[in-house]
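Worked example

This section walks through a single chain of length 339. The input is the sequence exactly as stored; nothing has been trimmed or padded.
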Amino acid sequence: MDQSHLDFINKHFPKADSPIGLTGAGSDRKYFRFLAQGKSYILTLSENTKENQSFFYFASQFEKHQIPSPRVLFISQDQKAYIQEDLGSHDLFSFLMDKNAQQKELLELFKKSISELIKAQSRLAKDFDYSNCYDFQSFSKELVLHDLFYFKNYFLDRSPLEYSRYTLTQEFLDLSKKVASFEQMGFMFRDFQSRNIMIKDQNPYFIDFQGGMKGPGVYDLISLIWQAKAGLSTEFKEKCILHYREERKNQGVEIPQLEFNRQYQICLLLRLLQVLGAYGLRGLVENKPHFISSINFGLANLKEISNLEILDQYPVLKGVIVQLSHFNINENTQQWNKN
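Given that input, the structure is written out below as tokens.
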């Protein structure tokens, strides 16, 4: 933070207290909290103006359609700094990690988040301009291939496994084509996980949605209930899935059972591999502790999907997933060990 950022704050809040830096996650954005006139606000700094512009458009649409999220109050002239409402420090993930949290209360927070998710997907479908998306505008064949090779290059190829690169590439190509035939594509948050859902007064608010695009809504459900460190039970996940399907039906956007099952399996496979690709890049390559500590949780998820029906169509990929599920990684030495 430099003087220009302080000047930006003081322009709108002349008697603001000194901003305090907040811990970030995987992005290059920097966050600061400051007090002014008895209220708390968040200052965000980012050099990526194109991504910022996407976020500003998304935020305006969220406000227009009454989707719970912090309002953007002020934007700097160069669009590299902006001030938002402060929703506090409690995200849904912190409730997950609270050992005193009751499962009934936790499930209720997840259900509320899923209900608001479906409202957002339904409302944004009306007049959302996807040309304002950052980078990819839709969950296309090209993006699916990007995610699959992201997993291969940054995670799989750093493991001890041997596999047929040619056959795996052919399977990736076939898998990417399946997404193009999905029905009922709408707004997709892309990273709809518990760290991006703030909880205030027992209600969910969405943050960090600048990666949104057109895509299958079920992908967001999967991102939420299959978050690696969440460790949700099968029963908990099934209750969330049932609530998702019931809410979609109530909103008049029901997906037929067979189509839902098809989308669910494909998106589940794609999401878990994309996440491991991120853990590989941020953890194994960039040595960021948070991502290194997440790898074994991601590998545990692979064990849960090793018998996924759709994997029978992709024998090499299934073999890779089964083998990886029998490994864990030492967080200190980054050595691969068989379970």
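What to look for: Residues 92-338 form a domain with the Aminoglycoside 3'-phosphotransferase; Chain: A, domain 2 fold (CATH 3.90.1200.10).
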